[in-house]
Structure formats: structure tokens, C-alpha cells
Design a protein that fits this description.
Blueprint (H helix, E strand, L loop, with lengths): L5 E4 L8 E10 L6 E9 L2 E8 L2 E8 L2 E8 L10 E8 L5 H4 E5 L2 E2 L3 E5 L15 E4 L10 E10 L9 E3 L6 E3 L12
Antiparallel strand pairs: 1-11, 2-7, 2-12, 3-4, 3-11, 4-5, 5-6, 6-10, 7-8, 8-9, 13-14
């Protein structure tokens, strides 16, 4: 398992209610704390996207209380495959399922083992001034065990999977778009 990850400290305030994470991932193990993305203020105030027991989990905590916990029923198990994961956030939308959307290989996930949605207009604890964003890990025990490629963080816009990939008309497989047409925003 790797013991390194990328970090960036936000230089200004962005949009706390909207954002998109996109990455191509290849897993090497199925663990509980494979961090893909995290923004951290303190131990009781953070937002994370990770693989937890093979499923994609989107979790947020404010003042030491969970404000959202979404986990896919679908489990990623193929150690030889590249998966494309998109987590699209917009808490200004009326329906909980629209506020946090998860796509795997271009297909929106609709079945969850945990589906505690963020409230309307709630802060995801993202894109906040002077907070640390990490990709591929956090701390000393939460490293992503695998490979990450073409990682994008978007501040202020909820995108579907289509700017980042498309279905190959010959093979039917989801393929990468190496130059997505997106607006990254202040902290993207």
C-alpha cells in the first residue's frame, strides 16, 4: 500500500454547496478507508469520498455530527479493471438523490446501502478558505491502495459523468475523455 498522497490548501472561499469529483481508479485491495478525496477542517468537520469495503462512500461531518452518509450497494472488486468514478454535488436541489449523485463507468448509481442525504442548501464542507484538500489519502492510515488517473475536482458546478468520458460505439465500454470541457472554479 502506498503511503503518499497529494495535498492542497485552498487559497480562497469557493462554493460550499456545489462541486464535482471525477477520477479513474484501479484498486489493489478492498479496505475500509481508501480515500479518494477529502477536505479537512478538523476531526469533527470534514468531507470525504472513499472506497469502503469496496463501495463508494460519500460522507460529511460538521460539529462532530454526520450531515450525510451515502454508500453504494455496488462493490468494486476487479483488481485488473480501471473504474471511472464521478461524485456530483449540489445541495440546492429539492431531491436528496439529486443533491449527491454517484456515477461508475458512466452509469448513475441508484441503489445504496446507506442513503442519509444532505439537507437542502446544506454546506458539504468543501471549497472553504484555508482548508486542506487531499487526493489519495489522509493522515497515516487512510491511503488509497491502487492507482489514480485523470483526477478532477470542480468547485461550483455539478457535472454528470459525460464531460469526463463516453461509451465506445464499437466495444460498448466506457472510455476516458482526456480533455473535459469543464469550469474548475476557485478551488478546482
Amino acid at each position: 500500500m502506498a503511503s503518499t498522497y497529494l495535498t492542497k490548501t485552498n487559497s480562497g472561499a469557493g462554493t460550499t454547496t456545489k462541486g464535482t469529483f471525477s477520477a479513474w481508479i484501479k484498486i489493489s485491495s478492498i479496505g475500509d478507508d481508501n480515500i479518494l478525496f477529502r477536505e479537512y477542517e478538523s476531526s469533527g468537520n470534514y468531507f470525504s469520498i472513499k472506497l469502503k469495503s469496496g463501495g463508494i462512500e460519500v460522507y460529511g461531518q460538521a460539529n462532530s455530527s454526520s450531515f450525510m452518509n451515502i454508500k453504494t450497494t455496488r462493490v468494486l472488486r476487479d483488481f485488473n479493471a480501471w473504474y471511472h468514478v464521478v461524485v456530483a454535488l449540489d445541495s440546492t436541489l429539492a431531491s436528496g438523490g439529486d443533491r449527491t449523485r454517484i456515477y461508475i463507468n458512466g452509469v448513475e448509481e441508484t441503489v445504496f446501502s446507506s442513503d442519509s442525504w444532505i439537507g437542502v442548501n446544506g454546506s458539504f464542507k468543501i471549497n472553504q478558505n484555508s482548508e486542506v484538500q487531499t487526493i489519495g489519502g489522509y493522515g497515516s492510515a487512510e491511503y488509497f491502495d491502487g492507482s489514480l488517473s485523470h483526477v478532477h475536482w470542480i468547485d461550483g458546478t455539478q457535472y454528470t459523468a459525460s464531460p469526463f468520458g463516453s461509451t465506445d460505439s464499437t466495444t460498448g465500454e466506457w472510455k476516458i475523455n482526456t480533455s473535459p470541457s469543464v469550469t474548475y472554479g476557485t478551488n478546482g
